[in-house]
């Protein structure tokens, strides 16, 4: 399977902001998107509390 330009965009988006990568792959705000948003927030908050 060939890697296209849109695949590279999705990879970069998922690395920078994971919910955006899920949204670009699925195309809708379904339960997978909201689970990813919740997990991103839960992972970000403990990281901020250590500073």
Please characterize this protein's 3D structure.
There is one protein chain. Helix 1 (5-16) packs antiparallel against helix 2 (18-26) and helix 2 (18-26) runs antiparallel to helix 3. The protein is 78% helix and 0% strand. The protein is mainly alpha-helical. Pfam families: Pmp3. InterPro entries: PMP3 (IPR000612). It is found in: Membrane. Keywords: Membrane, Transmembrane, Transmembrane helix. It comes from Coccomyxa viridis.
Keywords, separated by commas or semicolons:
3 helices, 0% strand, mainly alpha
Order of helices and strands: HHH
Radius of gyration: 13 Å
Separate helix tally? 3
Query: Uncertain segments of ≥5 residues (pLDDT<50)?
Result: none
- In helices, the fraction of residues equals over 70%
DSSP strand (E) fraction?
under 5%
Derived from helix and strand composition plus strand pairing, the structural class reads: mainly alpha
- In total, the number of strands is 0
What composes the largest sheet? Answer: none
Whole-number mean pLDDT = 80
Q: Tell me, briefly, the overall form.
A: flat
How far is the N terminus from the C terminus?
43 Å
InterPro entries: PMP3
Organism: Coccomyxa viridis
Main location: membrane
Family: Belongs to the UPF0057 (PMP3) family.
